[in-house]
Amino acid sequence: MIENDKQILLLVIKARAELPYKMSAFEQLASQVYAGVYNLARAISGSRETAENIAQDVLIRAMHGLPKLEAPEKFPMWLRRITVNTANSWFTKERSEREKRRQFSEQFEWEYEPSTAETSFAQMVQVLGVEERTIVSLKILNEMEFQEISEVTGLSLSAAKMRYYRALEKIRAALST
Hints:
Elements: H1 3-18, H2 24-45, H3 48-65, H4 75-107, H5 121-124, H6 130-140, H7 146-153, H8 157-176
Helix pairs in contact: 1-2, 2-3, 2-4, 2-6, 3-4, 4-7, 6-8, 7-8
C-alpha cells in the first residue's frame, strides 16, 4: 500500500468515527480525493461545470454514507461507485430536461445547432453513451482493471469488456469520418 493510500485509509477511519459531530477529518479526506472524483466526473460528463456539480454531490453523499461504510479499505471503489451513480443520475435528469426543452422548442419551431467540438478526450468520448463513456473513462483515466470496472458499474466482467471494446470502435469510426 503506498503512502497516500495509507493516509486516505487513516482519514476514512477517523472521519467515520467523527461524523456527524466533527467534520475536520472528512474535510481533509475530501481535499485528498476531490481531484480524482472531479476527473472521473469530468471524463464521464465532458463538462467542467457538470463535473464540479457531480463532484460536490458525490462528496455530500460520501459524507452521509461514510459512517455506514463497513469496510474502510474499500473506500476508493465505494467512492468511484458513488461518482458513477451520481453522474448517471445527472444524465437522467439532464435527458429529461433536454426533452422538455426540445418539446418547448418544437412548439415555436426554433432550431438547435450544436457547436463544433474540439478534438480532445472529453470530446472524443462524447460520441459514446453515458455507460460507454463511464467504462472508457474508468479504464483509460483511472487505469482500472476490467474486474474493478465491472464492480463499479454493476456489469458482468464480459459485458464490461465488450462495451469497452465496442466503445473504442465507435470512437475510431467517429475519428475516421
